[in-house]
Design brief:
With 467 residues, the protein is of the alpha/beta class. Helices cover 39% and strands 13% of the residues. It contains 15 helices and 14 strands. The chain is globular, with a radius of gyration of 21 Å.
Length: 467
């Protein structure tokens, strides 16, 4: 690859607390909104009762097995590990005056373990979960009060870990609240658009407050946002398709616009006006939003198409979003279209738009892996997928895009967010557990483990250019 990746490029992987930790009520942790979704984001919201269980309650037991897993990440040469803090471990109900010391102590141990190997933490403050108590008592992000509770939580962890964590993210895939309101903002799925956008506004204000707090408390640190990178192409060159594509891309770019530029763009004012959406925005809110992020982070799994005549086409569900399939692309086992070139395109779009450093914090292939008779797992399909995407990252860097790092999604098998499955595996490390929760939890290196180790060791020079 001719040394296209910078020498300080942050190679690593990404997980989320609610998909790996387990220990869902251990050491004083409260219920989170994720705990009320035992079948995943697309499952029903299910009250919890004493003695019941869900696959995420144990997940892969990272809470107790993290030393072993961090050692495996170090063996691959990780420079960075993205994970999240479970908010309900720190403030079990969300509105307490003082934090839960046992929860804080767990993350001290985790970050200390990472430091032993020189692995930098990249920490998401809220990754698809919040204390369920805030949803019950206040209506989640529908209440302005939640802004203050989040700021208290953010300041607490910044103060606690300011010497251990230098890279932070506010909300995971913040734009997905439009598609899964309970997961994103703690609102019922049937909430109207005004309610959802009001909750999103509160979240954007809270994000800006967290940015301000981070700059005050961790002056040597950097804090970014996190977008679901759902880039769309026009299905045809019809002008109407082009305009519809622009409109749909703005649905998610809006979040980046506010967080990176510090104000609501004019196109959203028109959208609110024409759709009868009422959002209460105070002058203090406008001042707060001016505190902008240091870098843009995003997930990328697939691209899609948009058209002014969608009723003529079937849609394919990908990472939360429904998209019109691109007839020029192949799909994964789960129907997610595979588009490595789209990652280069997205990197250029975001850098052109914001002129801020970019961080690819999720990208990977979910697949059904098979353990061979000799115990090996030959996941060449995953190697090919990641290789082709990373080749395009190198091309984007050569285009002049400033890319901070790359953390593949699920470097160790975990419980999937969408349907709470173990069979949809992303990892370089196999975990012996099935969708019914059976298995020894034994860890096993896949073929891709050694491939990614070589990629990191060579700083990307081992990647294979196709064609």
């Amino acid at each position: 690859m001719n040394g296209k990746f910078p020498h300080d490029f942050l190679w690593g992987g990404a997980v989320a607390a609610n998909q790996v930790e387990g220990a869902y009520l251990t050491d004083g942790k409260g219920l989170s909104t994720s705990d009320l979704q035992p079948q995943g984001i697309f499952g029903a919201i299910t009250p919890r009762h004493e003695g019941d269980s869900g696959i995420k309650d144990l997940a892969i037991d990272f809470y107790h097995r993290y030393p072993q897993d961090i050692a495996l990440f170090a063996e691959m040469g990780f420079k960075c590990l993205r994970t999240s803090i479970a908010w309900a471990r720190i403030f079990p109900q969300g509105d307490e005056e003082t934090p839960n010391e046992a929860g804080l102590a767990f993350y001290d141990r985790l970050f200390d373990e990472m430091a032993k190997y020189g692995i930098q933490p990249l920490i998401t403050l809220s990754h698809y979960e919040m204390p369920y108590g805030l949803t019950q008592k206040y209506g989640g992000w529908g209440s302005r009060a939640t802004i203050g509770f989040f700021e208290r939580y953010a300041r607490t962890v910044f103060e606690r870990y300011k010497h251990k964590v230098k890279h932070w993210l506010t909300f995971n895939e913040i734009n997905m609240s439009l598609h899964a309101p309970f997961t994103g903002v703690g609102l019922p799925a049937d909430s109207d658009k005004s309610a959802i956008y009001q909750a999103i506004h509160h979240q954007l204000v809270a994000s800006a407050r967290a940015v301000k707090a981070c700059h005050e408390i961790v002056p040597q640190g950097k804090i970014g946002n996190m977008l679901l990178g759902g880039i769309l192409y026009p299905l045809s060159c019809k002008p109407e398709d082009l305009l519809e594509t622009q409109r749909q891309n703005r649905d998610w770019l809006f979040f980046g616009d506010v967080q990176a530029r510090g104000y609501y763009p004019a196109y959203m004012q028109r959208f609110f006006r024409e759709n009868g959406i009422q959002v209460a925005i105070t002058e203090e809110d406008r001042q707060t939003l001016r505190e902008t992020i240091d870098f843009i982070s995003f997930s990328y799994y697939m691209s899609g198409c948009a058209t002014a005549d969608p009723e003529q086409y079937e849609t394919a569900r990908g990472n939360i979003l429904d998209m019109v399939p691109n007839p020029h692309l192949a799909s994964s086992e789960w129907g997610w279209q595979i588009d490595p070139v789209g990652l280069r395109y997205l990197l250029n779009v975001l850098y052109d738009r914001y002129q801020k450093p970019l961080f690819i914090v999720e990208n990977g292939l979910g697949a059904k892996d098979r353990v061979e008779a000799d115990g090996s797992i030959n996941d060449d399909y995953r190697i090919n997928y990641l290789n082709d995407h990373l080749v395009q990252v190198a091309e984007a860097i050569d285009d002049g895009v400033e890319v901070m790092g790359y953390t593949s999604w699920g470097p160790i098998d975990l419980v999937s967010a969408s349907k709470a499955e173990m069979s949809k595996r992303y990892g370089f490390i196999y975990v012996d557990r099935d969708d019914a929760g059976n298995g020894s939890l034994e860890r096993r290196r896949k073929k891709s483990f050694y491939w990614y180790r070589d990629v990191i060791h060579s700083n990307g020079n081992s990647l294979k250019q196709k064609g």
